[in-house]
Structure formats: structure tokens, C-alpha cells
């Protein structure tokens, strides 16, 4: 598949076009790092923005929920959506109020969800989701029962029409402000995971190593020798 | 002001009503902890969900941007919006695939933005925003010039019609799954800040202490004695 995203009237970045990234790799990376996406839809002119867990497999973005969900029922109609994932990476502190900013990665996808009906695709999508969150876990948990499978709906959205915006780097102060004696730079912002908190039914069960899924953003227990960030 | 949020057809939580919180304090706390919110609007039936920096003052949520922004121009028309802030607090790993979940706090506000035209309110809103991000900073940075003030538009949204959903606690496994020998519990998720990265114009300037704004989620430099999380 071509790595260049097709630009459409909806996906062309008009403000700060230098921050636009029209690459499929960048789009995938943003959704792969996202656990939550914000789904936008409208009913009779009123917009709704609902946070939901998301995962990517191939060129599709997946979400799931109870079949009784108001949002999912609405998506069943093929309603147009915009789904956005955002990572705040840093606060940019400039010498002037005006040039304060943020470093971030964000992606907006446009399209319409379709429900995953095929049983094999349904179960495989959950296996992928689980393995992304907790590698190796799928083979140990109880698989969905017939009743649970029926109650849980999965929807997918093609990642074909999307826009990506990214800001990196230090402040962009005006030259005449650069000598001003106020601290300038970036406060990095990171999402970190752990240490794991067992529930009462985990007693005596070895703690699995899911750090692979989170790379350097994993905070291990104090007794563990993994490096903390 | 009454701490109980008025329930409307838009804000009544239908799915998992036990996770609904109809308290103004909880709504404010979610936006106070949020740096980015997702603004949803629709143009000719197509939804858009745009991430943007946000801050709260009193009973209003504020956003800002270039006056030339497509989104802000659209908001000028008094278009209905939904603005959502979400904090992912933990991944919930249950014994069954079905009961996997997430801990989170999210708030959706409905209404219409109005532009802040009054000059005193405009500058005061930026002072509040800056001081929330970096306490004490406003008095040291260069204030906005007349040109910058004209180019930067501020919008506010009343926090009157809003819904809040929160999940906390361990997995809710079915009794017949509790003895299953697979680890169960929570992987906490946190947003952390720092250590600060000076730019080239910060040389020789003392690093300010902004940790107050971020509480325990501040990661100090290794040479510093503050506790890291």
C-alpha cells in the first residue's frame, strides 16, 4: 500500500501546514500508541465526542462496546464519523506569551464504521487487541462465551482518509526576545504504565511481563530491576 | 452554584449508568487536570474532532487559536459543540476476555462557544492559563503585542450542560472465573511531566520550579532530590 496519504478537502491541513504529515506510517504509529480514541458523530446537528478504547489491525481501526450502546447503534446506520487520537508530548515554554505551544502527535480519520459480523474476524480482532495490551495473555484468559460474544459488538473503520499533525522541537521565539532572562524550553509529557496492582484473585500467581508492550514507558515495581523512566 | 449537574437528554448516561457522576466538582477536576480537550463540531453533516489546549476559569472552559483557524471561524457562528476531556487511569486485566476494561475519568460538555472580545478578560484568561501550566511565569515572559493580541482569538464555553463518567477499582470477574490461574488486576496509567529540557536561550538561567502545577506526577532531574513517581 502506498505510504503517502491521499489529501482530500477534509484532510488538508490549513492551519500550520508545516506540521502536516501525509504518511501512512505516521498515521499507524499514532493509533498504535493510542489506547483511547475520541469518536465524533452527530445526531440532528448536535455533535457528540465519545472516548473509547481502540486498536489497529492492518488498515483498519477497531472499537467495541455493548450492542445496546447509543453510539454503536448510531454507527450501524453508516453515519459519517471523525475519530481522533492525540498524544501530548511536551509543553513548550517560550520567552513570549505568544510563542508558548505544545509538542504533540495527532491523527483524525474520516469515514464510516462497519460492524464486524464474521465470527472469525470478530474473535481475531479481540485476540489482536489483547495481545497488543498484554502480550501472551490471550491464551490464558477465559475466551468469550456465546452470550458475551452476542452482547459485544465490534466495529471497524478504514484508515484511508486521514490527516496527521505533529509538532516537535524547542520554542520558536522571535529573535528580539531570545535574550530575555526567562527560562525557555520544553517540559516533556509522557504516558507511563505500572507498577502492576494485583487484585485479590491474583494471589500466588506470578506477575506476567507485559513491559514489551510499553517499552521504556513501563514503570516496574521497586523490587524489580527493570529501568524506570 | 449548585454542585449537582442538571441532567438533560444529552447528558444522561445510558450505558453503565453506575459510572455516571453528576457533580460539578468532578467535572471541574477533570478539566483542571486536562491540558488537551477534543472539540467536536459538524459542518454539513460531517463531524470533526480537533484536539486543542484548554483551560478552565470559573464555570467556563477556554480554548484559543489563530483567528484564521477553520475551527474557530466555524465556532463564531454559535455552532453546537461537544468538548470532551479524558484521562486514562488504568488498564483492567480480568480473568475473562469479556471483563477486561479500563479505569478512566471523562467529561463531555455541550453548548456553543462565544468569543472573548473584552480586552481585560482576554488578557486575564491567558494569565490564568499560563499560571496553571507554569506558576509564577506570567510576570517574566513578554506579554502579547498588539499584533499578537489581534491574531489570537479566545473562546469560552459554559460548563452548564455536561456529563461525567468515571470507572475505578479492580476487575469485576464472574465468580466462576475467580479461581482461574491467570494474573488479574490493574496496570495503572499516568501522565508524567519533566525533567525540563532547556533550549539554547535558557543557558545560565535558573530552572524555575513548576512542579507545584503537576504534583506527584512531576519527574525531576536526576540531580534533584524531589521524589519521582
UniProtKB/TrEMBL annotation, chains A, B:
InterPro entries: Pyridox_Oxase-rel, Split_barrel_FMN-bd. Pfam families: Pyridox_ox_2 (PF12900). This is Flavin-nucleotide-binding protein. The lineage of its organism: Bacteria, Pseudomonadati, Pseudomonadota, Gammaproteobacteria, Oceanospirillales.
